[in-house]
Design goal:
With 172 residues, the chain is α+β, with helices and mostly antiparallel strands. It is 44% helix and 12% strand. The protein folds into 2 domains: 107 residues, Zincin-like; 37 residues, no CATH class. Strands 1-3-2 form a 3-stranded mixed beta sheet, covered by helices on one side. A 3-stranded antiparallel beta sheet has the order 5-4-6.
Length: 172
Amino acid sequence: MPMTSKNMAADYDALNIIIDKANVCFNQANTFFGHEFIPATCNLKQRGKAAGTAHLQKNELRFNHFMYQQNPDEFVSTVVPHEVAHIIVYQIYGDTVRPHGKEWQAVMQKVYGIRPSRTHSFDVPPQKQPYEYHCSCQKHHFSKRRHTRAQQGVEYVCRGCRSTLQFVDLNK
């Protein structure tokens, strides 16, 4: 979809709402812990199945605009604190704890009053051009990126039958 000023304005508004919520979350953590955490930068670069990602070493939060658009209120009230909690835990413990471990769960519950959950209920964007692969037990669909890697020599193995996945060229 070509970018229009209307699209850019909507993206800008969404990003500002997300940034505002992230700042609220950081302030809540500052108050709870009596410590000044370094706020992360936020953007709408997340793609694919994840609603958001915390890039810990970069102190960056990426959010999925496609999923935000489905239910902005739910997204802001669940996904933003989820990702900020990762940054908070990283700034306290470093990379010595599990991503959704007891420390992260405690931040979600005690600081934000949210039941910790690793998953979201947002629809994922449709694959633009799925590539079909097969193994001994089933069909697999690859994204363009994964297909390109497979064509460059990366070998993918089925988790079920442990056989190598083979490309099925549907154009032949």
